[in-house]
Amino acid sequence: MNAIELLAPAKNLQSGIVAINYGADAVYIGADRFGARAAAANSVADIETLVQYAHKYKAKVFVTLNTILYDHELEEAEKLIHQIYHAGADALIIQDMGILRMKLPPIPLHASTQTNNYDPERIRFFDELGFERIVLARELSLNEIRNIRSQTKTALEFFVHGSLCVSLSGQCYFSQAVTGRSANRGMCAQMCGHPYNLIDGEGNKIILNSHLLSLKDLNLSNHLKELIDAGITNLKIEGRLKEGNYVKNVVSYYRRKLDEIFASGSDYKKPSSGKTQISFEPDPEKSFSRGGTNYFLSGRKKNLINKYSPKSMGKKLGIVDQVGSDFITVTTNEILHNGDGLCFIFKDDLIGFRVEKVLDKKIVVNELSHLSHGTELYRNYDHEFNKILEADNSIRKVSATINVTEQDKQLEFKLCDEDHLNTVHIVNPLPEIAKDPEQAAKNLVIQLAKAGSSMFDIKEVLIDYETDYFIRISELNEIRRTLFEKHEKLRILTFARNNSKAERKSPKFSHTKVGFSENISNQKAILFYKEHGVENLEEALEISTVKEDQLLMTTRYCIKHELGFCEKLQLAKKTLPEPLYLEDQNRKYLLTFDCKHCLMQVRLNKNISLEGKSEKYKW
Fold first, then answer.
1. How far apart are CA 130 and CA 109, in angstroms?
2. Are residues 125 and 235 in the same domain?
3. How far apart are CA 224 and CA 239, in angstroms?
């Protein structure tokens, strides 16, 4: 059977443990430097603690070192990689090809989505380099994934949930060019979340103050079987900046979805051990959500963006029925609670307010402005649901049995778990014979089966001896604790960490000339590309000069298609006079369209005035 991994984000040690407890087969976490989320850094000591916890469940820990590096950082990065390996991490996720010219420990390498894993030729190159996993671009369709799978041997990972970068991963320079904060260095300023005006080639302001580059959140929960059948073995949840409640909810939801697939008679299984009983009904829409999209998985569609706000809208709640002096009534199937956060759209803006008190059908709120009969409401903070999440501290349990036998004038207590690992504890000499055999046997079973807050779920206690012995309850408790402690250590010690066995070949890169978008920022990376046939290369934008017409991002998302003006796919007869521009408070940005490949580019357009004409098209 093929193992299918559910991979969850870890902002820190605590959220990593939460991810394991609620069903993740692996977690990815940043070290204290060189991760693509600078705000989610962790010490090597914390990573080691997380590794020990994960390995008890046969789960894995991957460390992100997926920024580009500068020359003065190479030695420090190499030392850190060795520390990460000795901390027990199962793999390293990287972007910078200069790392391949370092003296590395035998840690498996994963090619980050930041390496722009978009087309089969490029992915074959990374495959031949010896990467043991490739994180595919989020823009790919099922057919494209199948095609890539047919041409590669390495494991393929794909995002299934969370925030989407509108740019091709690793190819966004908007933040670096405009603010000096590099997305490829973990400091993205989220320019895609800003509001923009759309201006046509005649200077008309077509759309005003809209979040034209802010995508909805990815949600492929209804397509997991299709992805697996297409060749994806590792399903990834985005969110290394998210808190514990988000992790509990979303990981539990996808764990349940996958377990249903595995139970349906498929040839798939999970690679880790244990199960978690939770006290809530997981629902990703009740955590941070800008609305869901399956992006390009089943082809190009409209309605990919949330034009109103990059903030969470949450779950659709219902319709305002009545607006009173300090209250509203709502037509809904949901139960509202004191402290809920609600929001609605008014004149293309997202407006939020708080529920102060629920009095039968009346909902007392702190703000009534712009609310009217028929207003569609969303709940972006479910107070009671979050209280339940906060209170739920479930521990993942590994099934086990305890067998008690008498051998050679001593009692043997053996714990055997679901993975068929055995731990034995011997009591010698034999205890005294019980005066009340029935009660003695009953006490033994009850006390040994108490798993409490341990990682074990004792399904059965089996007694196989002819004479019933009297063992004090305190002694039984001590025997149980000893068994559990020894068995936890055994599970960690017997975890088979896979050292890299990759055969590193020397394939030729697909081009002899590469531009700044290869993100080459150090001498080791330069040598790497030259060794693989590149004769002419440009330095990364981070160490070069921003041009007046600088390319800021390349995206498969297309504003023309989103608005219904695509001549190629929508056969639109009404189009906008080009060139098109995005405008913020500071400058205009030029939009260019590669219709042959269905790509849009955003460029600096330094010399164009900010003054436009009239609003012509209301979206």
1. 8
2. yes
3. 19
Would you give the DSSP letter of residue 230? H
Answer yes or no: do 368 and 417 share one domain: no
Token digits for 330? 């709502």
116 and 265 both lie in a single domain: yes
- In the chain, the number of structural domains is 4
How many Å apart are CA 134 and CA 94, to the nearest integer? 10
* One domain for residues 203 and 223: no
Backbone angles phi, psi at 575, to 5 degrees: -125, 170
Identity of residue 377: L
Q: Is 609 exposed, middle or buried (0-12, 13-18, 19+ CB in 10 A)?
A: exposed
What is the domain extent for residue 120?
2-164+217-286
Look at residue 610 and give its three-state secondary structure: coil
> Do residue 578 and residue 432 come from a single domain?
no
The two tokens of residue 386 are 């979050």
Q: DSSP assignment, residue 408? A: T
- In three-state secondary structure terms, 519 is coil
Q: Among 536, 528, 511, which Cα is nearest to 97's?
A: 528
Domain final residue, candidates 391, 415, 442: 391
Q: Looking at this protein, which amino acid is placed at residue 530?
A: K
Kindly write down the DSSP assignment for every residue of 236-299, as one continuous string: EE--TT--HHHHHHHHHHHHHHHHHHHHTT-SEE-SS--B---SS---GGGSS-S-EE-TTTTS
pLDDT at 95 over 80: yes
Please say whether the beta carbons of 176 and 182 come within 8 A: yes
pTM exceeding the 0.85 threshold for the entire prediction: yes
Tell which residue, 220, 349, 223, 238, has the closest CA to residue 288: 238
Bond preceding residue 429 cis, omega within 30 of 0: yes
User: For the chain, what is the mean pLDDT?
Assistant: 93
pLDDT surpasses 50 at 319: yes
Reported confidence tier of residue 617, pLDDT bands at 50, 70, 90: very low
Whether 333 is covered by a domain: the verdict is yes
Asked, for residue 347, whether it belongs to a domain, the answer is yes
pLDDT tens digits for range 209-219: 999 999 999 99
Which segments of 130-211 does DSSP mark as H helices, in order?
142-151, 174-179
Return the closest-CA partner of residue 563 out of 71, 133, 212.
212
Domain edge (last residue) among 271, 286, 301: 286
Give buried/exposed letters for 269-302 (b at 16+ CB in 10 A, else e).
ebbbbbebebebebebbbbbbbbbbbbbbeebee
- Kindly state whether residues 150 and 34 are assigned to the same domain: yes
Please return the burial class of 106, using the count of CB atoms within 10 Å of its CB with bins 0-12, 13-18 and 19+: exposed
